Protein backbone atom coordinates (compact mmCIF):
# COMPACT_ATOMS: atom_id res chain seq x y z
CA UNK A 1 0.00 0.00 0.00
CA UNK A 2 1.48 3.30 -1.04
CA UNK A 3 0.70 6.20 1.31
CA UNK A 4 2.83 9.08 0.12
CA UNK A 5 2.59 9.09 -3.67
CA UNK A 6 5.47 8.29 -5.97
CA UNK A 7 8.00 10.33 -4.01
CA UNK A 8 10.58 12.90 -5.01
CA UNK A 9 10.05 15.97 -7.16
CA UNK A 10 10.86 14.14 -10.41
CA UNK A 11 8.30 11.38 -9.83
CA UNK A 12 5.68 13.60 -8.17
CA UNK A 13 2.07 12.90 -9.00
CA UNK A 14 0.57 15.57 -11.23
CA UNK A 15 -3.24 15.74 -11.40
CA UNK A 16 -4.57 15.54 -14.93
CA UNK A 17 -7.43 18.00 -14.39
CA UNK A 18 -8.20 21.01 -12.19
CA UNK A 19 -11.20 19.31 -10.59
CA UNK A 20 -8.90 16.59 -9.30
CA UNK A 21 -6.89 19.13 -7.33
CA UNK A 22 -10.12 20.32 -5.68
CA UNK A 23 -11.08 16.71 -4.94
CA UNK A 24 -7.75 16.08 -3.21
CA UNK A 25 -8.15 19.27 -1.15
CA UNK A 26 -11.71 18.28 -0.20
CA UNK A 27 -10.41 14.86 0.81
CA UNK A 28 -7.83 16.52 3.08
CA UNK A 29 -10.53 18.72 4.67
CA UNK A 30 -12.60 15.61 5.30
CA UNK A 31 -9.61 13.94 6.98
CA UNK A 32 -9.23 16.99 9.21
CA UNK A 33 -12.92 16.70 10.17
CA UNK A 34 -12.35 13.06 11.14
CA UNK A 35 -9.31 14.11 13.17
CA UNK A 36 -11.27 16.89 14.93
CA UNK A 37 -14.03 14.44 15.79
CA UNK A 38 -11.59 11.80 17.04
CA UNK A 39 -9.59 14.23 19.14
CA UNK A 40 -12.83 15.69 20.53
CA UNK A 41 -14.07 12.26 21.58
CA UNK A 42 -10.72 11.44 23.17
CA UNK A 43 -10.71 14.76 25.05
CA UNK A 44 -14.25 14.28 26.36
CA UNK A 45 -13.31 10.73 27.36
CA UNK A 46 -10.41 12.00 29.46
CA UNK A 47 -12.65 14.61 31.10
CA UNK A 48 -15.32 12.02 31.92
CA UNK A 49 -12.71 9.63 33.33
CA UNK A 50 -11.13 12.38 35.47
CA UNK A 51 -14.55 13.48 36.72
CA UNK A 52 -14.99 9.96 38.07
CA UNK A 53 -11.76 10.30 40.00
CA UNK A 54 -13.14 13.45 41.62
CA UNK A 55 -16.46 11.74 42.35
CA UNK A 56 -14.72 8.89 44.16
CA UNK A 57 -13.70 11.33 46.89
CA UNK A 58 -17.35 11.99 47.76
CA UNK A 59 -19.45 9.71 49.97
CA UNK A 60 -20.92 6.90 47.85
CA UNK A 61 -18.94 8.01 44.84
CA UNK A 62 -17.20 4.69 44.20
CA UNK A 63 -19.92 3.39 41.86
CA UNK A 64 -20.01 6.70 39.99
CA UNK A 65 -16.22 6.63 39.67
CA UNK A 66 -16.28 3.12 38.18
CA UNK A 67 -18.98 4.03 35.66
CA UNK A 68 -17.20 7.25 34.80
CA UNK A 69 -13.98 5.37 34.17
CA UNK A 70 -15.75 2.88 31.88
CA UNK A 71 -17.55 5.61 29.91
CA UNK A 72 -14.39 7.70 29.70
CA UNK A 73 -12.30 4.83 28.38
CA UNK A 74 -15.06 3.88 25.93
CA UNK A 75 -15.07 7.44 24.58
CA UNK A 76 -11.29 7.39 24.22
CA UNK A 77 -11.53 4.06 22.35
CA UNK A 78 -14.25 5.45 20.08
CA UNK A 79 -12.07 8.51 19.40
CA UNK A 80 -9.13 6.30 18.47
CA UNK A 81 -11.38 4.22 16.21
CA UNK A 82 -12.59 7.43 14.57
CA UNK A 83 -9.00 8.47 13.83
CA UNK A 84 -8.20 5.09 12.29
CA UNK A 85 -11.41 5.02 10.21
CA UNK A 86 -10.75 8.58 9.02
CA UNK A 87 -7.20 7.76 7.96
CA UNK A 88 -8.30 4.62 6.10
CA UNK A 89 -11.04 6.58 4.33
CA UNK A 90 -8.56 9.32 3.39
CA UNK A 91 -6.13 6.92 1.73
CA UNK A 92 -8.94 4.95 0.07
CA UNK A 93 -10.48 8.14 -1.36
CA UNK A 94 -7.06 9.38 -2.41
CA UNK A 95 -6.45 6.25 -4.46
CA UNK A 96 -9.89 6.50 -6.05
CA UNK A 97 -9.40 10.17 -6.95
CA UNK A 98 -6.09 9.35 -8.60
CA UNK A 99 -7.70 6.46 -10.50
CA UNK A 100 -10.63 8.64 -11.59
CA UNK A 101 -13.27 6.41 -10.01
CA UNK A 102 -15.58 6.74 -7.05
CA UNK A 103 -17.32 4.01 -5.10
CA UNK A 104 -19.33 5.39 -2.18
CA UNK A 105 -19.18 3.38 1.03
CA UNK A 106 -21.19 4.10 4.15
CA UNK A 107 -19.78 1.34 6.39
CA UNK A 108 -16.97 3.41 7.97
CA UNK A 109 -19.41 6.15 8.92
CA UNK A 110 -21.91 3.67 10.32
CA UNK A 111 -19.21 2.13 12.55
CA UNK A 112 -18.65 5.45 14.29
CA UNK A 113 -22.38 6.27 14.40
CA UNK A 114 -23.20 2.84 15.89
CA UNK A 115 -20.45 3.21 18.49
CA UNK A 116 -21.73 6.65 19.45
CA UNK A 117 -25.32 5.41 19.71
CA UNK A 118 -24.28 2.44 21.84
CA UNK A 119 -22.38 4.70 24.22
CA UNK A 120 -25.30 7.14 24.41
CA UNK A 121 -27.77 4.31 25.10
CA UNK A 122 -25.50 2.86 27.80
CA UNK A 123 -25.19 6.26 29.41
CA UNK A 124 -28.97 6.80 29.36
CA UNK A 125 -29.58 3.37 30.86
CA UNK A 126 -26.99 4.04 33.55
CA UNK A 127 -28.49 7.46 34.32
CA UNK A 128 -32.04 6.10 34.60
CA UNK A 129 -31.11 3.24 36.92
TrEMBL record:
GO CC, one annotated term: plasma membrane
Pfam assignment, any one: DUF202
Organism for this UniProt entry: Rubrobacter xylanophilus
UniProt keyword annotations, A-Z: Cell membrane, Membrane, Transmembrane, Transmembrane helix
Principal location: membrane
DUF202 domain span: 22-96
Protein name as catalogued: DUF202 domain-containing protein
Topology versus the membrane: Multi-pass membrane protein
TM segment ranges: 31-48, 68-88, 109-128
Record localization: Cell membrane
Coiled coil: none
